[in-house]
Amino acid sequence: MIIRPAHPQDHEAWLPLWKGYLDYYEADISTTSGDTWQRLMNPPVDGPFALVAENNEGKLVGLTHYVFHGHSWRAEPSCYLIDLFTDADKRGQGVGRALIEAVYAKADERGAAQVYWLTQHFNEAGRRLYDKVAKVTPFIKYQR
């Protein structure tokens, strides 16, 4: 498996993974998926950026999107891992971990002080991985 930046020719292979991610979280933003892809393919300096996991047969089996942003408590940027998804048939095989570690490497290249993400309480499989590669914080999300 290799982790690499997504390329324009990956759109058709990326789309089912993106749809799987949206379905998992019961989100319907299908009308903006084309816009999402365009932003990922033409990011401003801070992102969003897309990485994909490609198996030995050349099939995309995972994706992650991330962005950098400033922080009022420190001079270094922060990195927000926006989306992470692994094909259901490939879960438990290190795809998610490899994608997170690739984002960590990108954050290190930028000198980011932290990499963080959100998940929902019912994402038990994801949380088992996250507990191994990061630490949970006491923050609660509010949203308008």
Helix-strand pattern, N to C? EHHEEEHEH
Number of strands: 5
Number of helices: 4
pLDDT averaged residue by residue: 93
**CATH overall fold name:** Aminopeptidase
CATH superfamily: Gcn5-related N-acetyltransferase (GNAT)
Q: What share of the residues lie within helices?
A: 25-40%
In short:
By secondary structure, the protein is of the alpha+beta class. It is built from 4 helices and 5 strands, in the order E-H-H-E-E-E-H-E-H. Helix 3 packs across helix 4 (124-133).
Characterization of this structure:
With 144 residues, the chain is α+β, with helices and mostly antiparallel strands. The chain has one domain (2-133): Gcn5-related N-acetyltransferase (GNAT) (Aminopeptidase, 3-Layer(aba) Sandwich), CATH 3.40.630.30. The protein is built from 4 helices and 5 strands; from the N terminus they run βααβββαβα. The protein has helices at residues 11-24, 33-41, 95-110, 124-133; strands at residues 2-5, 49-54, 60-69, 78-86, 114-116. It has a 5-stranded mixed β-sheet with strand order 1-2-3-4-5, with helices on both faces. α3 packs across α4. The radius of gyration is 15 Å and the shape is globular. The mean pLDDT is 93.
Which descriptors apply to this entry?
144 residues, Aminopeptidase, 4 helices, 5 strands
